[in-house]
Write a structure and sequence with these properties.
Shape: globular
Radius of gyration: 23 Å
Strand content: under 5%
Number of strands: 2
Oligomer: single chain
Structural class: mainly alpha
Largest sheet: 2 strands, antiparallel
Helix content: over 70%
Strand order of the largest sheet: 1-2
């Protein structure tokens, strides 16, 4: 038994069990996606090669080996080398903007012979480590808002570089992880309030300008904000800064919108209103809703999804694979799947709260925030 334990990672068994169940879930759904449609229909080519399934099996095996190896690497070593690793990832992000090949209008990969490396994936991990190191030391030294601002500057470096690739989705990961870790750090509620209200101001301005065509909606929000700030117990300087940040983000949205790539603008517009282009950019979102809705409570049953099987649902083996879960396994299957994710998230938060050292606590929260986002 002792020798057998060498092949399994130490740590929380609930997380390991949930991870194992998610692996089985992914393999089962991918097998379904690569199978021809069975039942009263003529057997059709699924349009997705079985290679997708076997590739997933291969990478799950590699991932498990990496999991076992990483679990035996002492956290104190990661603490000590977090800054060199972060600087290396920043260097690679800068390098990709200079020599990375342009693929699909973006520079995101470094090509080293037969190997393609995406530096932004490494940067996510090293950012969590270096921020955990920085905030952990700040806890021990009793620093407050200054530490939160310092961690923001750390976050801004990889975020801006990734945004330049351009990769808006990945750049937002850094913001989300930073917010989660700073929230865990505590004593900076005003900072998070300012960030949250600024995002709300930007969203309201965007909706007012692009959909409602009524600019007064954003003006109404600012009036309500002024009224709230009048009654809350904050210093005059804090109130002025909060108001200025909200106004700045709202006014800045039209300028930011013009800087986005065309496909990014289209994604955002379609997110708010898929029906504006039913057979173009909105087709995927509409078909995914049809697939999930057709599953009902218990689904159309495994291997019997018609949206998936008749290829009405594009990208069914990648971005929109959850639609297959909703169609074939129904509401019950979708809830079970989300429950597995929730188990990992909640156990990760518990680990962050019970960690003996601040570094370990912040690493746990950073990983959970990344996973959740």
């Amino acid at each position: 038994m002792r020798h057998l334990s060498l092949f399994f990672p130490p740590g929380d068994r609930w997380i390991l069990l949930a991870w194992f169940c998610l692996c089985l879930f992914s393999l089962a759904v991918l097998w379904s996606v690569t199978e021809p449609l069975h039942g009263p229909y003529k057997e059709l080519d699924p349009g997705v090669s079985k290679e997708v399934f076997y590739r997933q099996v291969f990478w799950l095996a590699i991932g498990f080996c990496a999991l076992v190896a990483a679990s035996r690497f002492p956290l104190r070593y990661l603490d000590n080398i977090s800054m060199p690793l972060f600087l290396l990832s920043v260097l690679l992000l800068a390098l990709i903007l200079l020599v990375g090949p342009r693929i699909g209008g973006a520079r995101r990969w470094l090509v080293l012979g037969p190997i393609n490396i995406q530096p932004s994936e490494l940067a996510k991990v090293t950012f969590i480590l270096v921020t955990a190191n920085f905030l952990g030391r700040s806890v021990e030294e009793g620093r407050g808002v200054a530490a939160a601002l310092g961690s923001f500057l750390i976050m801004a470096v990889p975020m801006v570089l990734v945004l330049r690739e351009p990769d808006l989705g990945t750049s937002l990961v850094f913001v989300a992880v930073w917010v989660g870790m700073v929230f865990w750090f505590g004593s900076v509620g005003l900072l998070l309030l300012g960030a949250g209200s600024a995002v709300l101001s930007a969203v309201i301005m965007f909706y007012a300008e692009s959909f409602a065509k009524e600019a007064w909606l954003w003006g109404g929000y600012i009036v309500v904000l002024v009224a709230i700030l009048y009654f809350v117990r904050l210093s005059i300087i804090s109130k002025v800064v909060l108001l200025a940040v909200n106004v700045g983000f709202g006014i800045g949205i039209p300028f930011f919108w013009e800087k986005l790539q065309g496909y990014q603008q289209e994604r955002i517009m379609t997110f708010f209103d898929p029906s504006r282009d039913e057979f173009g950019s909105g087709y995927q979102a509409i078909q995914s809703k049809v697939a999930i809705g057709s599953g009902g409570l218990f689904g159309t049953h495994y291997l019997q999804g018609t949206q998936k099987g008749l290829a009405f649902l594009p990208e069914r083996h990648t971005d929109f694979i959850f639609s297959v879960v909703g169609e074939e396994l129904g509401f019950v299957g979708a809830v079970v799947l989300l429950g597995l994710f929730l188990t990992i998230i909640m156990r990760g938060i518990d680990i962050g709260g019970s960690a003996r050292r601040p570094f370990g606590s912040f690493v746990a929260v950073g990983v959970v925030t990344y996973f959740t986002f």
